[in-house]
């Protein structure tokens, strides 16, 4: 099964992977803002701001769902990788690690990590 938005014309796979870390951070932020809105709803109800809060809640819920769908598609693509290729992709794009940190964690040289990374990207591109 192919995931439509991961078609890799013009580096689309790289773009999605680069956005992955921030996508995860945004999901956390949206959930936190939604939780805060729900907590404040009672207080603002008395001031007539409940309608605006409900609009914002709907917006955040929509953003969360859209982000979760993108996350699912990215993770589905990454699951196709095996071993150190998968580990390097996750360390780089999910955990936002530097190349030096990744080299240390996987116990490969900097240049080996880059070669493995390049091969992993090629596999992702070939799959889509």
Task: Characterise this structure.
The chain has 128 residues and is mostly helical. The protein has 2 domains: 71 residues; 47 residues. It is 79% helix and 0% strand. The protein is built from 5 helices and no strands. Helix 1 runs antiparallel to helix 2, helix 3 packs across helix 5 and helix 4 packs across helix 5. The N and C termini lie close together (9 Å). The N terminus is likely disordered.
Q: Which geometry do the CA atoms define?
A: elongated
> Which regions contain 5 or more consecutive residues with pLDDT less than 50?
1-10
Oligomer: single chain
Order of helices and strands: HHHHH
State the main characteristics.
single chain; 79% helix; elongated
